[in-house]
What we know:
A: mainly alpha; B: 2 domains
Amino acid sequence: MHKERGNDGSSARAALLSGMRDTFPLLVGAAPFGLIFGALAMASGLSAWGAAAMSALVFAGSSQFIAVGLIAAGTPVLVIALTTLVVNLRHMLYSATLAPKLKGLPLRWLLPLGFWLTDESFVVAAKQFDEQPQDPYNRWYLLGSELAMYTNWQLATWVGILAGSQIRDPQSWGLDYAMVVTFLGMLVPMLKGRPMLAAALVAGATALVAQGLPHQLGLILAALLGVTAGVLAERAWPQAAEAT
Amino acid sequence: MNEVWLIASMAAATIATRIPILLLLSRRGLPPGLFAALRYVPAAVLSAIIVPMVLTPGGELNLSWQNAALLASLVAALVSWRTRNLLLTIVVGMTVFLAWRAFF
């Protein structure tokens, strides 16, 4: 990605910018989602400051959406917090995946990198760390991706809050499909080799069947079974795995 | 509803899923077998998120051509497979999705 580098400062900056650049298409996919969140939050009775603070301090799209629905239904705070925890369990898989690549970093790096970790930055960084495992500036790359996602999410939320009173029934616009097609565009290039295909197929099928489980627990189950399927397929077709 | 308490507890719950494992495993490392398995996490999670959203819009399984999300996703998957261009995939997918919904 970023080969031409001078001293350390410019290399770090190059990696930061590279992470931002590789995340740009995902901003396009996430922005409508943030906009709808802002608008729905207004409709749910949350204050404008509350909605903006939630995006700034929680910064987890799907759990923010679910929270807004629960707030509108008059759900107690404790239940909303527990739901947030369960919905965000997938971040544990992400941190476990990235942690070995961030080995030995001090807390002043790990805390912000962890706080800003999202689906999008995880996928972008996992790809970079996989392709350039020795790059000493990978932490800057991840930081760039995360800062881009964070800034974008705040801006989109504010637009949604401001537009909230003008928009009727924001969910009926179909903007939430933007997230689906963004994730699809990230998924398809990953599907190289039988084990990876097996992981995606089993995870997708499990998620479909387990959809009825509460709090998106089906998602966690699907991810775990998908990973297991990938490992088993790797053992069944070792050559196919090496080819990827 | 106390918004301060709401947001503080949601932030704490989210941070609990993002930071502790990162701190722990960036110190100790992982058993190699588990580490190898984790490379399937991105594809598995993405697939698990989108498959239900595409195949069961509105909560029920819909495999017909009237399912705009399904049709747009097939087109978008083809574009992604041929070009590997994420931005183009998103634009084409959204265009097909919105156009299909407008017409049917």
